[in-house]
Known about the structure:
The chain is α+β, with helices and mostly antiparallel strands. The protein folds into 2 domains: about 5-70, 3-Layer(aba) Sandwich (DNA Methylphosphotriester Repair Domain), CATH 3.40.10.10; about 80-175, Homeodomain-like (Arc Repressor Mutant, subunit A), CATH 1.10.10. Helix content is about 55%, strand content about 10%. The chain contains 9 helices and 5 strands, in the order E-H-E-E-E-H-E-H-H-H-H-H-H-H. Strands 1-4-2-3-5 form a 5-stranded mixed sheet. It starts with a strand and ends with a helix. One of its GO terms (molecular function) is DNA-binding transcription factor activity. It holds the Pfam family HTH_18. Its cofactor is Zn(2+). InterPro entries: Ada-like_dom_sf (IPR035451), Ada_DNA_repair_Zn-bd (IPR004026), Homeodomain-like_sf (IPR009057), HTH_AraC (IPR018060), HTH_AraC-typ_CS (IPR018062), Me-P-triester_DNA_alkyl-Trfase (IPR016220), Tscrpt_reg_AraC-type_HTH (IPR020449).
Amino acid sequence: MEEREITITDEKWRAVISNDASYDGRFFYAVKTTGIFCRPSCKSKPPKQENIRMFRTADQALSAGFRPCKRCKPTGVRLPDEEWLATVTEYIDAHYQDRLSLDVLADVCHGSPYHLHRTFKRIKGITPIEYIQQKRINQAIRLLITSARPITEIGQDVGLPNLPYFTTLFKKRTGMTPARYRQSMRSDKEVFLNDTSR
């Protein structure tokens, strides 16, 4: 039986970081952090070596659960937009605390910023940046309700370290500042507990 994964040699790694088209068809590399696989010639931002796996064929990369790159089309077929956006949203969900921008997401998910913005808005109904903000505010709400941690710490934890911006964005999405929201949730909880203790 043919071995599915192949060893990463210096020669193959050099082919990846130099986008050497002469290696196309000889192997494919997959990026563990994004779940995408590419041809050696792919012009996407080079991944870290420790985050890649190499396969002899595109079918082997597919069998291992990786999706074909939208930019270099390693299977010769374009990845459906819905599958591509699943990769993007999975990445955001796992990295919402990081500094994320349209350019960063496009690099990570192997597409152009313009195409990513347009496709995301068409399929999800919101832009990638709005999705990131929504994710961050939802996580902030969870932390405000379940912990007594300072609001500045919560902002940092959800990727919004600038307190005035965090407060403005939070108020825009919920109608209240983070402090008022926390106070409101505590008041509601006390009312509920008093009602049930009768």
